[in-house]
From TrEMBL:
It is found in: Endoplasmic reticulum lumen. PANTHER family: PROCOLLAGEN-PROLINE 4-DIOXYGENASE, PROLYL 4-HYDROXYLASE ALPHA SUBUNIT. Its EC number is 1.14.11.2. Residues 407-512 form the Fe2OG dioxygenase domain. It comes from Drosophila mauritiana. It holds the Pfam family 2OG-FeII_Oxy_3. This is procollagen-proline 4-dioxygenase. The lineage of its organism: Eukaryota, Metazoa, Ecdysozoa, Arthropoda, Hexapoda. It comes from the Eukaryota. GO terms for molecular function: iron ion binding; L-ascorbic acid binding; procollagen-proline 4-dioxygenase activity. The gene is LOC117145612.
Length: 537
């Protein structure tokens, strides 16, 4: 339930006066937002209870006065000739009504509740809200989720949380509209209107009052409908405007009448491409990556892959052999099972959390590291020598692969929250200026899985049709370079979006220097086989 509930919750919290903390990029920090809403809920509940008590007292006194007037109406002369009644009438008008007025004013003061100015609370920024919206859209696209089911809290057929209200769907649709993601705007606005229709229909059939849109929401609906109409989306605009008129028939859609018959823009197909979509996300290669994430393709290999016990490179490993699962022999991709205990994983995560920052992507030569929607996560860098657990990780990795781990970058612990991902990329550096010449390029990568992921979050190799699901304590290993030390473009890989859960990994990048005897080159260069994968198709 937590995954979808937290995502939806990001749309309802306001961002005024907050510090940018990239809450949307990782599960770390989201608990702060949950605590904020818990605090606000308690405060508002206290005020509501106090107001309820005051209203009950007022209701009792008002009923008593109404009863007096009912008696007086039946025989006014008889009522007013009773000295007790006269005294009580005088007292009420002189004293009681002033007291009741004071109580009403006190209730008004109690109603003064400002959720945006509570000191010391955590609030998401506008970037967080947009990031959460994009996460839902990313999950829809990658896993082909039905919007109606997502709104019901159903992810890939599993019910996790409560339903989204029609207001939730409308706010998400409007958020996507402001981000110029018009295709997804349409589906969420239509889902919102369908939910509103069902709500009003249900209320009418049970003769119950229904909570329709307030004036502010009606204004938003009308403005959005007008913009969609001008963009040529007549169907969605008409549906929105019909709902507006249903709740406020006095509104006259002059914009509709005046613009009726206006032809849609000639470049309507371009208009409806999401603003955040780039050419790569529309490529065949990206579509293949999404298929691998969904598990729609499987490796068709002529290689003899095995799951076996391995002694690795340690002479005494026969006493405790490694559990090795081969995914590909060329390029070499394999999983070593049960390499890290839950206790050691807990230690790593505890060390990483205080140091977590938004992940960045490699810049152009001479540029600075930048945040990007290409990679949505948080990470921390830890020095191996700072804790025995990390020293042991390098030792075990050396035993398993035979590689010299002297020249490794610091351990990078990363966390991907709901919708977190890392689009297809290579781990080797394409520009020699990005790595120290004395250490060489990244010859190999090892990913330590520090958590399980309920749905999504696999490590995908689109060119190899491989998707490896995170399993606690396992290590995924592969070579980024050919034996000739040329770049192996077949190793392009990605972190599939996390659909449900939280993905924690530890990245180890081993450099090529000192690997001459551990992985000697062949007589001839062996790089030609991967050159065709360099160009995006």
């Amino acid at each position: 339930m937590r995954g979808l509930t937290l995502l939806v919750g990001l749309f309802s919290l306001l961002a005024q006066g907050s510090l940018a903390s990239d809450y949307f990029s990782s599960i770390t920090g989201l608990e702060d937002l949950l605590h904020t809403e818990q605090y606000l809920t308690r405060e508002l509940r206290s005020k509501v209870n106090a107001i309820k008590t005051a209203l009950q007292h007022l209701e009792s006194e008002l009923s008593s006065i109404e009863k007096e007037h009912t008696m007086a109406a039946s025989d006014t002369e008889n009522y007013l000739t009773n000295p007790v009644n006269v005294y009580r009438l005088m007292k009420r008008l002189h004293t009681d009504w002033s007291l009741m007025e004071g109580r009403v004013q006190l209730m008004a003061e109690e109603m003064n509740f400002n959720a945006t100015r509570e000191y010391g609370l955590s609030y998401p920024s506008q970037e967080d809200v947009e990031g959460a919206a994009l996460a839902l859209v990313r999950l829809q696209s990658t896993y082909k989720l039905d919007v109606a089911q997502v709104a019901q809290g159903i992810l890939n057929g599993v019910k996790y949380g409560s339903d989204m209200s029609w207001q939730d769907c409308f706010e998400l649709g409007q958020q996507l509209f402001e981000m110029e993601d018009y295709n997804n705007t349409k589906v969420w606005l239509r889902e919102s209107m369908e939910r509103l229709r069902r709500q009003t229909s249900h209320a009418s059939s049970h003769l119950a009052p229904t909570s329709g849109p307030d004036t502010v929401t009606l204004n938003k609906m009308e403005a959005t409908a007008k913009s969609l109409f001008q963009l040529g989306d007549f169907d969605t605009a008409f549906e929105l405007s019909q709902r507006v008129l249903q709740f406020d028939p006095k509104r006259i859609r002059n914009w509709h009448l005046g613009d009726k018959g206006t032809a849609p823009p000639e470049d309507i197909d371009d208009v409806y491409l999401p603003k955040h979509s780039d050419s790569y996300s529309l490529s065949q290669e990206f579509a293949k990556y999404e298929k691998v994430c969904r598990g729609e393709v499987h490796p068709i290999s002529r290689q003899e892959l095995r799951c076996r016990y391995s002694r690795g490179n340690h002479p005494y490993r026969f006493l405790a052999p490694l559990k090795l699962e081969e995914h590909s022999l060329d390029p070499y991709v394999a999983t070593f099972h049960d390499m890290l205990s839950p206790l050691k994983i807990s230690q790593l995560r505890e060390m990483a959390v205080p140091r977590m920052h938004r992940s960045t992507v490699n810049p152009l030569p001479g540029g600075q590291l930048k945040k990007s929607a290409f990679r949505v996560s948080k990470n921390a860098w830890l020095a191996y020598e700072s804790h025995p657990t990390m020293v042991g990780m390098l030792r075990d990795l050396k035993d398993a692969t035979g590689l010299d781990t002297t020249f490794c970058e610091q351990l990078q612990v990363a966390n991907y929250g709901v919708g977190g991902h890392y689009e297809p990329h290579w781990d080797f550096f394409r520009d020699p200026n990005h790595y120290p010449a004395e250490e060489g390029n990244r010859i190999a990568t090892a990913i330590f899985y520090l958590s399980e992921v309920e749905q999504g979050g696999a490590t995908a190799f689109p060119f190899l049709d491989i998707a490896v699901k995170p399993q606690l304590g396992n290590v995924l290993f592969w070579y980024n370079l050919h034996r000739s030390l040329d770049k192996d473009y077949r190793t392009k890989h990605a972190g599939c979006p996390v659909l449900k859960g939280s993905k924690w990994i530890g990245n180890v990048w081993i450099h090529e220097v000192t690997q001459t005897f551990a992985r000697p080159c062949d007589v001839f260069r062996d790089h030609e086989v991967s050159l065709e994968y360099e160009i995006i198709k």
